[in-house]
Design a protein that fits this description.
alpha/beta; DNAb Helicase, Chain A; Rossmann fold; 2 domains; about 10% strand
Amino acid sequence: MLLGAPWRGRVSDFDGSTLGPRVPPHHRAAEVSVLGSVLLDPDLVRNPVLVTLNEEDFYLESHRLIWRAIGILAGQEIPADLTTLSAQLTRTGDLDNAGGLTYLMGLADEVPTAAYAEHYGRIVLEHAHRRALIRHAGTVMRHAYAGDMALEDIHTLATIPPALEFGEDDQSVAVGDAMRQVLHEAETGTGSRGVSTGLKDLDGALGGLQPGRLYVVAARPAMGKSALGFQVAAYVAKSAGRVLGFSIEMPATEISARLLAAEAKVNMGRLGVNRIGDAAPGEALTERDRQRLRASTERLADLPFRILSKSSLRLQELIGEVRRAHAREPLKLFILDYIQLVQVSGRSADNATARVTEVTTALKSLALELNIPVIALSQLNRGVEQRADRRPIPSDLRDSGSIEQDADVIVFIYRDEVYNPQTDQQGVAELIIGKNRSGPIATVKVTWQAPFVRFDDLAYRSSHA
């Protein structure tokens, strides 16, 4: 159903100075054609487009009354013809307001064939949606003029337009059809393999990044969650297509510096001090470093990877930006750094648990809506530091159980060298798959090359030892 109450009256500019009164968008001939077609062929009430029509989608009051009566008859499995329709309108006392018996007879006469009912139904829906948008814009304008709503709430309201329903497709899927598809993919090996993370062992455990799934990467500070997340995002951009990122902690230049150091295998510390002009002897970039950085810049400069630059975006603004980016050209991945810093509007704003719940629910819905994988980075509670075994578990996720509930996959990062300087696991990170909705939990060991802010497969380190 389209948002808002049925429109009655005329649209005018709210400051009364520019647009003047205007007649709301409508198409009388299309409305007549829909009603007349149903009288000619009552089975059309099951048409996938006409079934989405509500009485308020009709502009004229008489047509709303007629469509409501047709709906009542359909609910009783009574075909709508001149006799049954006039009887129903008489029972509700609406016959005269609907134009009377003469008007009903004229509806069918104005439509020579019912073959184009779906086409006219789409026209009625399009004009109904235009009216709904005008009402929505009017609501935004009234609040903006009145100043009775917080600015960020008005902005959020403006970014959530009425739903557009044209009824093109049946949104249900037969379970039997889905089973046959699963069997075919299993027998032929044609199922989705997911987008590669760039880490073979992690791909083996997860099956790659699957569309429609929410992946949460969580760790304590300095474990490398941002490095892992953006490294994977860059690899997806290289191998699969467009990626959009959003970080509240790091500007695009810092993310790019990390990616450049990882690609070029140049010490991030050298790159950092050279950028600010404070390089001491021995810390300066070598000529070999410069050559590697130039070559890597050439390889990465044209990556289809963009970072949203406005770190103050609230949740609904952020979701709107991602949707618009996907509409311009389909995305292969969206990455958020990180969940707990995203701000929301309304009652959830001052409650950390409610805020995180709203964020994770929106991210999961976004992954399903756009049919892309979404990576969201997350903090962990400090309680993990108090245990003898400091490997994270799902209950360590900070501020909300909703992260565990909404995420399809949760990957924790643990590096023993952070807590045990004498460990024999120097330069090794454990990617602990603490939740995997479509597979087993597991632990994947990878190398952590701290100077380059880079993760690699263990086999890579062995072959380059």
